[in-house]
């Protein structure tokens, strides 16, 4: 079977669905952009994997939006410790603040993210 790669940068419509009676269903994906329509038949497991990836990407994007709303000093605390891997002591030194002040910033930032996440579940 030949392999084809279809690229849609921003499709007008993207649908995952089924056709047929329970127990005898066919799973498919369909992408539409302008006059171009591509439909692909999938196995049930492939649809489940795709759904998991879409959910994970959606959650990641939502987390990044919440992160972007944090005050800059709190974002920098998370960046230095959680993304760059610095210890809180190293991060405090890099920012020129006391260890206590830095740990408060980091705690406040994590708490805000946690609170927003729990409010949007």
Structure description:
The protein is α+β, with helices and mostly antiparallel strands. The chain contains four helices and three strands; from the N terminus they run βββαααα. The chain has helices spanning 44-68, 72-83, 88-95, 99-119; strands spanning 13-19, 26-33, 36-42. The chain has a three-stranded antiparallel β-sheet. The longest helix is centred in the middle third of the chain and has 25 residues, at 44-68. The radius of gyration is 22 Å and the shape is elongated. The relative contact order is 0.09.
Which keywords apply here?
single chain, alpha+beta, 4 helices, elongated
State the gist of this model:
By secondary structure, this protein is α+β, with helices and mostly antiparallel strands. The chain is built from 4 helices and 3 strands, in the order E-E-E-H-H-H-H.
Question: Approximately what portion of the residues adopt beta-strand conformation?
Answer: 15-25%
Number of strands: 3
Tell me the distance between the termini: 42 Å
Main sheet record = 3 strands, antiparallel
Helix percent reads 40-55%
Widest β-sheet, arrangement of strands = 1-2-3
Average pLDDT reading: 88
Low-confidence stretches: none
What is the H-and-E element order? EEEHHHH
Determine the structural class based on helices, strands and strand pairing.
Answer: alpha+beta
Shape: elongated
Q: Provide a count of the helices.
A: 4
Write the layout of secondary structure elements.
Blueprint: E1 13-19, E2 26-33, E3 36-42, H1 44-68, H2 72-83, H3 88-95, H4 99-119
Helix pairs in contact: 2-4, 3-4
């Amino acid at each position: 079977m030949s392999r084809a790669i279809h690229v849609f940068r921003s499709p007008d419509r993207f649908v995952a669905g089924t056709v047929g009676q329970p127990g005898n269903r066919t799973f498919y994906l369909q992408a539409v952009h302008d006059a171009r329509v591509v439909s692909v038949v999938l196995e049930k497991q492939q649809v489940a994997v795709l759904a998991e990836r879409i959910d994970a990407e959606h959650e990641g994007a939502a987390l990044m939006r919440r992160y972007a709303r944090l005050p800059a000093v709190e974002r920098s605390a998370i960046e230095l410790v959680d993304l760059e891997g610095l210890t809180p002591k190293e991060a405090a030194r890099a920012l020129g603040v006391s260890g206590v002040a830095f740990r408060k910033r980091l705690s406040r930032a994590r708490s805000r993210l946690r609170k927003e996440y729990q409010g949007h579940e």
